[in-house]
Every structure is written in C-alpha cells, then in structure tokens.
Amino acid sequence: MMVPSKASPWWDRERHQDRLPFLRQRAAITRAVRDWFAAEGFVEVETGILQVSPGNETHLHALRAEGLGGSGQASLYMRTSPEFACKKLLAAGEERIVEFAKVFRGREDSPLHLTEFTMLEWYRARAPYATIMDDCVAVVTRAAEAAGTRRFAFRGKTLDPFAPPERLTVAEAFQRFAGLDLLATVEGNRGNRDALAAMAASITRVSNDDDWSDIFSKVLTEHVEPKLGEGQLTILFDYPSPEAALARTSPQDARVAERFEVYGCGVELANGFGELNDAAEQRRRFAGAMDEKERRYGERYPLDEDFLAALAQMPEASGVALGFDRLVMLASGATRLDQVVWTPLS
Predict the structure, then answer these.
(1) Residue 169 and residue 113: Cα distance in Å, rounded?
(2) How many angstroms separate the CA atoms of 210 and 189, rounded?
(3) Which of 98, 137, 124 has its CA nearest to residue 318?
(4) What single DSSP character describes residue 83?
(5) What does the pLDDT look like over 331-343, one tens digit per residue?
C-alpha cells in the first residue's frame, strides 16, 4: 500500500484512514461527555458565531467578518469564545448551560493551536468555582473511559486520568518550579513590574519593554507549565489579580483572583473562573486591555455593551472553557490536533 505524503490533503483516502481511529474516538468521547452533562442537568445551548465584539483580551486576535453587519454595524467578528453570549443566558435565567462551540482565533496555528477549534464551555449559576474544578476532573475521566485508556501521553509525559488531581496555587507553583515569591510583587490588583523583573532576571530574559504580565507569562511558560500534569492532572488556581481576566477577586486575598487552569502532560486543557459580575470593574479591565492592545498591535475591539448590561443582572456563577480538541488528542493518543479534527483547514 502506498503511504500518503504529509503534503496530501486531509481528504486523501489513505490519509483519512490513518486518522480514522482518532476520529472514531472523538465521536465516542463527544457522546460520553454529552451524556455526563445531561445527567448533571445541563441544557446544551447553541450561541451565535457572529458577534459585535470578539472579546477584549490584549493578546487575543479575532477574525473579522466584513460587510455582514446590519442596522448600521459596519462589521462583525467571528467569536473567539461563546462566553459573552453564555453569560447573557445566565442573566436571562438559565442555571446550568454547556456548549460545544466552534470558535476562531487569528495568529494561532501550531501543534497545539488551530485557527478554528472546538471549545467546550459550561457554567453553573450560584456555584463556587471549586465545583467547576471538580466538573473538569469528571469530564477528563469520562473522556478516558470512552477512549478505553488509563494513560494519557504527550511529548514524553504521561498521566493517569483517574488519579486524584494535584492542586497548586500559582504562588506555590512559582515558588516550587521557579524559586520566585510571586505574591510579593503584587499590590492589590496591580503587579510591581520592577520587583518581578529583579526576581526573574536570573531565570528568563527580561526586556526593557516587558510589563509585569509579560514577565509573569515568560516564567509561567518556560519554568512552570512544562512541569504540570505529570502523573496526574494539575489544577493551577488562585491566579494573581493582574491576570484575573473575567474572574472575580478572591474575598480572602485581594492579590489573587478566582481563576484556575487545568493541565495534563504539560498541556493547558481548561481555563475557568469564579465569574466577575461587577459591570463597572469589567469595563475598567476591558478598557485597560484594549489600550494595551492598541499600543502593542495598533488595533482595538469594541466593547459589547449588551454584555456589560447583562453582567450587571447576572447571578453569581462559575464557568470554564475547555479545549475539546486537546482533550481528545490526549485521550486518543494522537500527537497533533489535526489528527482529531474531522475537517482541518487545508
């Protein structure tokens, strides 16, 4: 049998046959995860792909849909997340919602990133964010059961998906893996750039134009993330307040926020929040992020005023976005995301 070339398209019959075992496992995992959410009383929703704002994060790059806007809207954006729409549904009275959402991000194309990918996102009204952490563990377990595996492996790292997860605060992880007292550089919701630069200079390259978040991200990606999710899942929680994004500040310590991430085999799988529902604070954060985006990239995205209005009415809630393709990749034994996507971008 002729071996298909790597340059052959995904729809080449032989290449498709090579991917088929992973795709069949994707189908089984999707059914199992859907069944788990149904048993937990979640309603599966479908929110719109076209949005007036794609999100307001500094380093997030959206795809623009020119000329599709109505009522004077010059353009719309392909969503980078269903988060804004899902939170509007929480404000409207939904209690537990989940979506297998197709989302789109520019400048993301690597073995762990795709321009178009599936984000599994869910929310619980009036639930602490620790409950969403437990949900993530349950979803990973169901994926492993559906794939018929007791071992995830990726790039030389392995884990037991049925083992109790390791739970580390970000501060603990920075101390253990980088030797840095991270919270000593945080004052309220602001990071002291010079203090962190002085600490980190011996373990990473610090540029003159790096701000606190840049240095934080360098240490995280170079020294912390590669050590996470070995042997068992790692839940990294209590992110420093300058990295809160859409999470509320911890009532116990203003230096940290109710944000967590889940890692397996060094791969980030999920990013969750105890959701901020202070519209004024969210507006302030968005404005700051867009100012920084304009400084760095020369562009800014509009704010979704409907979202901010809904946020003021949204009950306390917690939610998470999980990279479904990444989960399937780990559970199925694939080595690249395009092996577990039915129709990858050619």
Answers:
(1) 26
(2) 18
(3) 124
(4) H
(5) 999 999 999 999 9
Number of C-beta neighbours around residue 47 at 10 A:
18
Are 321 and 268 in contact, with CB atoms under 8 Å apart? Answer: no
Supply 78's token pair: 């392909």
Cα–Cα distance, 95 to 272 (Å, whole number): 17
In the chain, DSSP assigns E strands to: 43-44, 50-51, 63-66, 75-78, 96-104, 116-125, 152-154, 157-159, 166-169, 186-187, 190-191, 234-240, 256-264, 267-274, 317-323
φ and ψ at residue 39, rounded to 5 degrees:
-65, -30
What are the pLDDT digits (tens) for 54-64?
999 999 899 99
In DSSP terms, 99 is beta-bridged to 121
Tokens matching residue 187: 């004052």
pTM to 2 decimal places: 0.93
Concatenating the DSSP letter of every residue in 155-168 gives TTEEE-TTSPPEEE
